[in-house]
Amino acid sequence: CRVRNYKFHVVMRNTTRLCGTKPIVTVNGKFPGPTLYAREDDTVTVKVVNQVKYNMTIHWHGIRQLRTGWADGPAYITQCPIQPGQSYIYNFTITGQRGTLLWHAHILWLRATVHGGIVILPKRGVPYPFPKPHDEAMKLGSAPNVSDAHTINGQPGPLSSCSLKGSSQPGGFSLQVETGKTYMLRIINAALNEELFFKIAGHKLTVVEVDAIYTKPFKTDTILVAPGQTTNVLLTANSGPGKYLVTVSPFMDSPIAVDNVTATATVQYSGTLATSSPTTLTNPTPQNATPVATNFMNSLRSLNSKKYPAKVPLNVDHSLFFAIGLGINPCSTCSNGSRVVASVNNVSFIMPKTSLLQAHFFNISGVFTDDFPGKPPIPFNYTGTPPKNMATTNGTRLYRLQYNSTVQVILQDTGIIAPENHPIHLHGFNFFQVGRGLGNFNPKKDPKNFNLVDPIERNTIGVPSGGWTAIRFKADNPGVWFMHCHLEVHTTWGLKMAFVVDNGKGPNESILPPPSDLPTC
Ligand code: C2O
């Protein structure tokens, strides 16, 4: 293993997308930003130099950060922001992970343009648990880029004539393939607010890895990726010469998804004329999106081989139930007398003024309390109407976990305003999705069907709209770890909380000391 040093200059850059040019915040002038390459066991340092007028932090989404919470990146959770003109060196070691992840800004909405891929290659000499793909250089940046598609979807109204040019517009990408070869595509959903379907006309995809964890390979024609999630698929070029459309479309259970088809890229067999028109899909967005999504989610399994066992916690020390969702709170200063809030167990999280990890490590009182409720205040019919417990409280409340204890969290979508899919992301850990269902979680029946053998392991999980997801993890990483909805709008509204993991000996013995250039608030 070695040390890989990167430099990220955060700068404004005029960028052309969707037939328009404007200055955006970028890393090293690139959108999407540079891909970070490393091998399992490598140490990575990234010096982030902030040359814009906004505060900045960068999060390495899915990197475990064992004892190095200082490098995790969420603003006011593990660090104070890097202020304009300042710099900070993120320093972490990649342990027990290989595959694709992403990095992104973790302050305000800046991750819209400040994001990029992380490619972790297996240790030297250690093969993939599947046949080596022919062209392993097919990586983000040159692979079909989901974030560009989202930018297109993000335009209000129907597809503009500019968007309709599809793959010929700037940012559109053509993947050149040769008949008979197999390619690995690394797909990252860097979108702010939409879970996305990904398809390639005329081809099946073999899923081999999600969130930098190997899966049991399975074939599908549609994959579903939530914001923050990553998926590696194998594509075998065996559909005959031609040009095939790659489509990305949002998964929404709401009628507001009008602008739901976007051509973002093409797969082009060598020997095909660049000017030939692509083979399209008649149905890029599945008509019946929910069953397709459910089917995809249920097909995901950990590889659980001798070499890569699924270490599912079989016993549970902390059994938690988190009701997550949106609500409406009275608001005297709002025009219609109310405002939309989002909460976990009716607590809408308030960002502190100094970072939680600093407050924890240096024993600064008054920044947070550790009385986050392990259950919702009033159990009720989470998926029914009318709702009973809409009144949300505010607070910077954390849940304290004993170091090395095992944790189960039932994430129940409350569907108070509208059933919504929530991609919940946990920092500092991977977790196993041991169960999933629609409707209310039934504590008597549902645990009997939990998969404790080969459940999928990941860092971000889509909680189904009007349904629940059960996760388990081992709290083997001391520090302060954020958990939140990866839809930026819901995070902003308060759908977030944090865990503090302590070994009882005090943070100074469990967490490495902070780097000397750690920003102050
Ligand atoms: Cu990818 Cu807390 O974020």
Automatic annotation (TrEMBL):
<keyword id="KW-0964">Secreted</keyword>
<dbReference type="InterPro" id="IPR011707">
    <property type="entry name" value="Cu-oxidase-like_N"/>
</dbReference>
<comment type="function">
    <text>Lignin degradation and detoxification of lignin-derived products.</text>
</comment>
<feature type="domain" description="Plastocyanin-like">
    <location>
        <begin position="136"/>
        <end position="271"/>
    </location>
</feature>
<keyword id="KW-0186">Copper</keyword>
<dbReference type="Pfam" id="PF07732">
    <property type="entry name" value="Cu-oxidase_3"/>
</dbReference>
<dbReference type="InterPro" id="IPR008972">
    <property type="entry name" value="Cupredoxin"/>
</dbReference>
<dbReference type="GO" id="GO:0046274">
    <property type="term" value="P:lignin catabolic process"/>
</dbReference>
<dbReference type="Pfam" id="PF00394">
    <property type="entry name" value="Cu-oxidase"/>
</dbReference>
<keyword id="KW-0732">Signal</keyword>
<dbReference type="InterPro" id="IPR001117">
    <property type="entry name" value="Cu-oxidase_2nd"/>
</dbReference>
<keyword id="KW-0052">Apoplast</keyword>
<dbReference type="InterPro" id="IPR002355">
    <property type="entry name" value="Cu_oxidase_Cu_BS"/>
</dbReference>
<dbReference type="InterPro" id="IPR045087">
    <property type="entry name" value="Cu-oxidase_fam"/>
</dbReference>
<keyword id="KW-0560">Oxidoreductase</keyword>
<dbReference type="InterPro" id="IPR033138">
    <property type="entry name" value="Cu_oxidase_CS"/>
</dbReference>
<dbReference type="InterPro" id="IPR034289">
    <property type="entry name" value="CuRO_3_LCC"/>
</dbReference>
<protein>
    <recommendedName>
        <fullName>Laccase</fullName>
        <ecNumber>1.10.3.2</ecNumber>
    </recommendedName>
</protein>
<dbReference type="InterPro" id="IPR017761">
    <property type="entry name" value="Laccase"/>
</dbReference>
<dbReference type="InterPro" id="IPR034285">
    <property type="entry name" value="CuRO_2_LCC"/>
</dbReference>
<dbReference type="GO" id="GO:0052716">
    <property type="term" value="F:hydroquinone:oxygen oxidoreductase activity"/>
</dbReference>
<dbReference type="GO" id="GO:0005507">
    <property type="term" value="F:copper ion binding"/>
</dbReference>
<keyword id="KW-0479">Metal-binding</keyword>
<comment type="similarity">
    <text>Belongs to the multicopper oxidase family.</text>
</comment>
<feature type="domain" description="Plastocyanin-like">
    <location>
        <begin position="372"/>
        <end position="504"/>
    </location>
</feature>
<keyword id="KW-0439">Lignin degradation</keyword>
<dbReference type="GO" id="GO:0048046">
    <property type="term" value="C:apoplast"/>
</dbReference>
<dbReference type="Pfam" id="PF07731">
    <property type="entry name" value="Cu-oxidase_2"/>
</dbReference>
<dbReference type="InterPro" id="IPR034288">
    <property type="entry name" value="CuRO_1_LCC"/>
</dbReference>
<feature type="domain" description="Plastocyanin-like">
    <location>
        <begin position="11"/>
        <end position="123"/>
    </location>
</feature>
<keyword id="KW-0677">Repeat</keyword>
<dbReference type="InterPro" id="IPR011706">
    <property type="entry name" value="Cu-oxidase_C"/>
</dbReference>
